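Technical note accompanying the year-one report. For the benefit of new consortium partners, we illustrate the data format agreed upon in the data management plan: each record pairs a sequence with a C-alpha coordinate string. No post-processing was applied to the example shown here.
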Amino acid sequence: MARVNIGVDAELVVEVMVLAGVGNPQDAVELVLRDYIKRGHRTEARTASPDEDLRVREPRSDGHAG
Protein backbone atom coordinates (compact mmCIF):
# COMPACT_ATOMS: atom_id res chain seq x y z
CA MET A 1 0.00 0.00 0.00
CA ALA A 2 1.29 3.47 -0.81
CA ARG A 3 2.20 5.72 2.08
CA VAL A 4 1.50 9.42 2.49
CA ASN A 5 3.26 11.66 4.98
CA ILE A 6 1.27 14.60 6.34
CA GLY A 7 1.66 17.05 9.17
CA VAL A 8 -1.02 17.01 11.86
CA ASP A 9 -1.32 19.13 15.00
CA ALA A 10 0.35 17.23 17.86
CA GLU A 11 -2.43 18.01 20.36
CA LEU A 12 -4.98 16.59 17.95
CA VAL A 13 -2.99 13.39 17.51
CA VAL A 14 -2.49 12.99 21.26
CA GLU A 15 -6.23 13.37 21.83
CA VAL A 16 -6.95 10.74 19.17
CA MET A 17 -4.39 8.42 20.76
CA VAL A 18 -6.05 8.79 24.16
CA LEU A 19 -9.57 8.29 22.79
CA ALA A 20 -8.54 5.30 20.70
CA GLY A 21 -6.40 3.81 23.47
CA VAL A 22 -3.46 3.52 21.10
CA GLY A 23 0.15 4.35 21.91
CA ASN A 24 1.33 4.90 18.35
CA PRO A 25 0.36 8.13 16.53
CA GLN A 26 0.34 6.42 13.10
CA ASP A 27 -1.99 3.67 14.33
CA ALA A 28 -4.31 6.16 16.01
CA VAL A 29 -4.73 8.26 12.88
CA GLU A 30 -5.24 5.14 10.74
CA LEU A 31 -7.95 3.91 13.12
CA VAL A 32 -9.79 7.22 12.89
CA LEU A 33 -9.63 7.24 9.11
CA ARG A 34 -10.79 3.61 8.82
CA ASP A 35 -13.67 4.30 11.22
CA TYR A 36 -14.68 7.36 9.21
CA ILE A 37 -14.74 5.31 6.00
CA LYS A 38 -16.75 2.49 7.63
CA ARG A 39 -19.29 4.99 8.96
CA GLY A 40 -19.65 6.43 5.48
CA HIS A 41 -20.35 2.99 4.03
CA ARG A 42 -22.89 2.23 6.76
CA THR A 43 -24.63 5.55 6.10
CA GLU A 44 -24.75 4.83 2.38
CA ALA A 45 -26.25 1.41 3.08
CA ARG A 46 -28.95 2.87 5.33
CA THR A 47 -29.88 5.73 3.05
CA ALA A 48 -29.85 3.86 -0.28
CA SER A 49 -33.16 4.07 -2.08
CA PRO A 50 -35.21 0.86 -2.40
CA ASP A 51 -34.90 1.05 -6.20
CA GLU A 52 -31.12 1.15 -5.94
CA ASP A 53 -31.21 -1.90 -3.67
CA LEU A 54 -33.23 -3.83 -6.25
CA ARG A 55 -30.79 -2.99 -9.02
CA VAL A 56 -27.88 -4.39 -7.03
CA ARG A 57 -29.52 -7.68 -6.05
CA GLU A 58 -29.22 -10.77 -8.18
CA PRO A 59 -32.50 -12.19 -9.52
CA ARG A 60 -33.85 -15.18 -7.62
CA SER A 61 -33.60 -18.58 -9.25
CA ASP A 62 -37.39 -19.12 -9.10
CA GLY A 63 -37.89 -16.29 -11.59
CA HIS A 64 -39.09 -13.69 -9.08
CA ALA A 65 -37.18 -10.45 -8.63
CA GLY A 66 -35.67 -9.53 -5.24
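Partners are asked to follow this layout when depositing records. The chain is about 60% helix and 0% strand.
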